[in-house]
Amino acid sequence: MGWAAKDATGHLSPYTYSLRNTGPEDVYIKVISCGICHTDIHQIKNDLGMSRYPMVGSDVTKFKVGDVVGVGAIVGSCRNCHPCKSDIEQYCNKKIWSYNDVYTDGKPTQGGFAESMVVDQKFVVKIPDGMSPEQAAPLLCAGLTVYSPLKHFGLNKSGLRGGILGLGGVGHMGVKIAKAMGHHVTVISSSDKKREEALEHLGADEYLPYLSLLKLDGKLILMGVINAPLQFLTPMVMIGRKSITGSFIGSMKETEEMLEFCKEKGLTSMIEVIKMDYINTAFERLEKNDVRYRFVVDVAGSKLSP
């Protein structure tokens, strides 16, 4: 039993389905907490035009029964391409999303708004001891999304000056992780309304109320999903040899590193825990940016059936 959108209205309601069979390398997972990402809105409302509507295996070696584990946005890949062999399976052309996708056996992926799920052990991570499920849930999306580019672009060395553009679910974790890496962090936003939050509660060093701020050889790293084209004047990039680049969530290896980093540094996500019957209201609020900073569904404590 889970909750699902039946059409592009985006309204979620109880939904009964069958899990795919547990294979020799699969993990059967009881869902305790599930984070909500703004990308979920794009999927349930078909904003991107690609939405689909309606026991531990004998060879599993990474986990044992009773382990507290986590699953992010990806639950499968080809295992043979260059990205897969380079431990950056999130860039595999045959990656399988954890929801709104199809497994190799033809079964649909159903996501985490449900009682349980079956996932290949490669795409499951151990939650560090002492980290609560509701805190781990946003880290598997927002935390990983900022940790991966900081590491890839060499920004995990302390003492750098950088900016976080936008202070939402991903941005607030960007501030926390960048500060924990020892950086001077400036929050760049469209208005002054989050100045106090950024400086006093998240620990940012400066706040600026946006491409003109980049210095020579500066990089603007895009991580958010938007369904409208970006517009800019080419001289703004050419003059100053500036770069606009992107980063897409992160790898399984980076997921494990990020969780341990957050545990070591004592980093937590600012969350609002809700029950499943509040999910549609939560999506309405998320569209209005009315959350500080991530909703997490208490799946284990919710009544999923009507």
**What order do the SSEs take from the amino end to the carboxyl end, as H and E?**
EEEEHEEHEEEEEHEHEHEEHEHEHE
Strand order of the largest sheet: 4-18-17
- The dominant shape is globular
Radius of gyration: 20 Å
pLDDT average, as an integer? 91
First-to-last CA distance: 10 Å
Provide the β-strand percentage band. Answer: 15-25%
**Low-confidence blocks of residues:** none
Percent in helix: 25-40%
Explain what you see.
The protein contains eight helices and 18 strands. By secondary structure, the protein is an alpha/beta fold. The strands form eight sheets. It has a three-stranded mixed β-sheet with strand order 4-18-17, with helices on both faces. Helix 3 (133-152) packs across helix 4 and helix 3 crosses helix 7. The radius of gyration is 20 Å and the shape is globular. The mean pLDDT is 91. It comes from Salix koriyanagi. This is ALDEHYDE REDUCTASE.
Task: Draw up the topology in text.
Blueprint: E1 2-5, E2 12-15, E3 26-30, E4 33-35, H1 38-44, E5 69-70, E6 74-76, H2 82-85, E7 96-97, E8 99-102, E9 108-110, E10 116-120, E11 125-126, H3 133-152, E12 161-165, H4 169-180, E13 184-188, H5 195-201, E14 206-208, E15 219-222, H6 234-238, E16 243-246, H7 252-265, E17 271-274, H8 279-287, E18 294-298
Parallel strand pairs: 12-13, 13-14, 15-16, 17-18
Antiparallel strand pairs: 1-2, 3-10, 4-18, 5-11, 6-7, 8-9
What labels describe this entry?
metal-binding; 8 helices; ADH-like_N; 18 strands; single chain; oxidoreductase; 306 residues; ADH-like_C; 3-stranded mixed sheet; zinc; 25% helix; 22% strand
